[in-house]
Specification:
The chain has about 290 residues and is α/β, with parallel strands linked by helices. It has two domains: about 110 residues, 3-Layer(aba) Sandwich (Rossmann fold), CATH 3.40.50; about 130 residues, Rossmann fold (3-Layer(aba) Sandwich). The chain is built from eleven helices and ten strands. Strands 4-3-5-6 form a four-stranded parallel sheet, sandwiched between helices. Strands 8-7-9-10 form a four-stranded parallel sheet, sandwiched between helices. It has a two-stranded antiparallel sheet with strand order 1-2. Helix 4 packs antiparallel against helix 5 and helix 5 runs parallel beside helix 11. The N and C termini lie far apart (about 50 Å).
Length: about 290
């Protein structure tokens, strides 16, 4: 029976039958497809789709998340392309759609939305009644619904070192942090344009349709926010010991903790166990 669903761009997508040739342009979704027991249906991935290790290496690579190789994707003859509104550049996704390829775009901003996307993907793949899938989804929804530990730890989460960048309340990372007992000290901070305005050196101009969720901040601004904890994920920027030392020197009252960037920012299957790992890490610092 045909399945009609809306993706996160509110675009209706019709599936006449469960797809059998899938290209994933999103590392989270590559892992999601395997977690749902459908890894054998993947015929293409990006160079950043590296999980699960030992299983993805044989799958052909069709560029990166930002520089998707449209010709390579089309040559793989997929009946489903998994994309993400934030991780993938707009132009190649629109080109794939113009080639009349079935593109399904996700954009979860909360952990619970990521689990809901996993459930939606299970329906698309026709595995939503599989007992192992139902168990995975139950565990995911349970993790997303657990009360956050209190009191919350005032936390600074940089995602890039030079320039120093962080996240605000409209991001998946913010929600994940909240669930594990952290309070994002830059939750209310929007990115201002141009750069000098973002750094507090000039007046800001209208952002238009530009993304305002990832502000660039100064060390002085971080000090003013008085974080108790500096949480350093290992992606997208691989924070080093030298980075940690520089941040610790600038904010000596804060503790510094390294964590998995995938636990913090990958949605869907990774969150099922990743949120618990992060919760345990933060609990150990209290």
């Amino acid at each position: 029976m045909p399945l009609r669903l809306f993706d996160d761009r509110k675009r209706e997508v019709l599936f006449v039958r469960p797809p059998q040739r899938i290209v994933s342009l999103v590392p989270s979704d590559t892992l999601n497809v395997f977690a749902l027991g459908a890894g054998a249906r993947l015929v293409g991935r990006t160079r950043y789709c590296v999980e699960p290790q030992g299983a993805v290496e044989a799958i052909p690579v069709a560029g990166g998340t930002k520089d998707v190789d449209v010709d390579a994707v089309a040559a793989l003859r997929p009946d489903l392309v998994l994309a993400n509104q934030e991780e993938n550049s707009r132009a190649p996704i629109e080109e794939l759609a113009r080639l009349q390829l079935q593109v399904f775009v996700s954009f979860p901003r909360k952990v619970a939305e990521g689990i809901a996307h996993l459930a939606r993907l299970a329906r698309i793949l026709g595995v939503d009644h599989d007992p192992s899938v139902l168990d995975l989804l139950r565990r995911g929804y349970r993790e997303a619904a657990l009360p956050a530990p209190r009191p919350a730890l005032r936390t600074f989460v940089p995602i890039w070192m030079d320039p120093l960048m962080t996240v605000n309340a409209e991001t998946f990372i913010h929600d994940a942090l909240s669930l594990v007992g952290g309070e994002n000290v830059f939750g209310d901070r929007v990115r201002r344009y141009p750069l000098q305005a973002d750094l507090g050196r000039d007046a800001s101009r209208p952002a238009g349709d530009r993304d305002t969720r990832y502000p660039r901040v100064t060390l002085e601004e971080v000090r003013e926010r008085s974080p108790e904890l500096i949480l350093l994920p290992d992606e997208p920027h691989p924070f080093s010991a030298a980075d940690a030392s520089a941040l610790q020197s600038a904010i000596p009252s804060a503790r510094v903790l390294f964590c998995s960037g995938r636990d913090l920012s990958w949605y869907g299957a990774r969150s099922v166990d990743g949120i618990g790992r992060l919760r345990a890490q933060l609990a150990a610092t209290r």
